[in-house]
Predict the 3D structure of the following.
Amino acid sequence: MDSTPPPSSASPFDMVSGALGEYIPRGDADDDTEDNRDIDESAASRGEGKRRRGAGRPEQILGAVNVDRDLRITDSNLEAPVFAGVDPVAGMPFVDLLPPWDVPTVTRRLRQVLETGEPHVARVQRLRRRDGSELVVSMSILSAAGPREGLTISLIAMARRLHLYAAETAIGTSLDIGETAQSLAESLLAWGDVAAIDLDFAVWTGEVVTDRPQGRVRLRRAALVPDRAWPDGYVTPGDDLPADASRLLSHAIRRDDPAQAVVLPDRAAVERVLGSPRLARTLIPGEQAACVACVPLVLDGEPPVVLGVAEVWRRADRPFEDGELFDLQELVARTAHHVDLARQHQREHTQVLALQRRLLPRSAGDTIETASVYQPATPDSAGVGGDWVNSFPLPDGRTAMVVGDVVGHGLGAAATMGQLSMEARALLSAGLAPGEVLEHLDDTVSLLDDAESGLAAGYSALGSTCCIAVYDPVSHRVELASAGHLPPILVPPDGTAGPVAVRPHPGLGAEFALREPFDVYAFTAPPGSMLALYTDGLVEDPAMSIDEGIGRLSDAVSAVHPWDPLEEAARRVVRSLAPAYRRDDVTLLLARTIGYRKEDTATWRLPARGDAAARARALVTGLLERWDTREDTRDSVLLVVSELVANAVRFARGPLTVRLIRGGHGQLLCEVGDKGNGRPRLGRKDLLGDGGRGLHVVHGLTTRWGVRWTDDGKVVWASVGR
């Protein structure tokens, strides 16, 4: 019976060591001698070591090290000749094989894999040899399989061509400009001791890059490796290069001939070019790293566009060879388009983010307190989405709250988001009910998705969602309508939180056969109630159901104390729920109801009779006297109420509802409701006619007036300054 364990039971260390057995010669005395293990690097690079090991044998570049949970070496297999001089000893810390400045970063990565179990794959790393030289490897960190404990670290000595391929593959994995530059710098470290990427400021911010910019070029350090503490004054990531340094570097890389590496062979040459001790301290990373190769980061085109410069620093005793410079130029040339893609993504990300922040609510009025939080998707994800949130006071004293989620990401979603947001605000301000507004938005999404402007442009907004809530500060009622959106969370003053019972409805732009009227739900939100509107990025988690996510949000919102500042509370709720790595936007709107005091409002119901205007004037007169209103304001209000009631009696059906509200900012709001569905219109004045004269009187005495529609009629409102 074969006693070999199945492949699934083998540890990563055993599998790597087994693969090594196919290449490492066994029983060859020459290969096991200490002299053979100490072959100098130059001999190995000339191929002499390979000839000693037998012609035709493939060069081995793979090794493995196993460490325990204390990060001490338990096993190792670095017998390949390329690892000569790297001496792992059982019991020694693995970090003793590393350059001192890499120890904190690698230790952090090792412990992260121990804690999470997620592998850390194919990162460029250096190992120290006995003679003080360094070996560049691709290092992967894996959790060791049972019965072993700890980690298995696989090491691949980076042959030049393999390194070029691996570097190009790694650099193209992110759309974040900083991460892209960092990946390029880590790849360039194979040719030197320090690598830096300096980008044109326009590239860093995602702006349009011109082929020949006018004036001085501004360079910003985008990446620097290794990750360690640098001397004071040295330019580190996020800092701008000094003006003189930017001028020198940009002059060197913006020549008319094809872009080539510029090499300064020693410290004296570098200081002579810089011409200033201050610049030398700013740009030279230490006393020994005094040889530098500057490689332009050029985007192919007619003419070519320079995005920045890559710098590789070495000790003065290791000058760059022609073959190395060729490899450097090849790697930078291959990856320039990745940098430009990240620049374009950064530009789009910035534009969409600016639009969404423009849509965030500024103020919701005096009768309700609101706070919103918007967090865009993580920069290297698919891009900023189409989430939007807004709250604004309506002209008639109510407050509208709108949250929506447009399908897709990027500029197409942002354009649709802006259009829907502005349309919703205009329709709500015109007095339409939430359900009617959603009907209009539904038509808009369908029109945007026609063959010319939608699908032909590569973007479809079908299935976008939206939720609209309107709060009346007098009745303390909320009218709500939803198109495929997640239900809001309501927390009454007694603290019993839960989602509002909203019947599911298809999203905007659904097929005609699926379209149904948008139901409007009305519920009471007494003063001190909390209402939370949000998008799915806040509650969606692959590890739980959507109902569990909504339940967690309900618990978090109910934990907000009535005296907590709402802005701080909203940020705290998002911090407790939103994932660190966001594939979708996170949006939350919290609203705390306040309403009007009872003594600031009055409502009367009157029959639609000829004496209704006189009765209304009498009732309003007594109220205005109790409110101690100025005489001129009192006269204006009485005349406005009289005209509105007379119009309702003449053109509509009763009964009538008269409501007076003493609002903030010195305004009195007069409302007259009736059962008619005709819209009052302000026509051209006819000096000889009687029709429409009342509206001209109202228009002249008020700061603003309008109509809002109800289920059984309309309300005409007018605002008078007091």
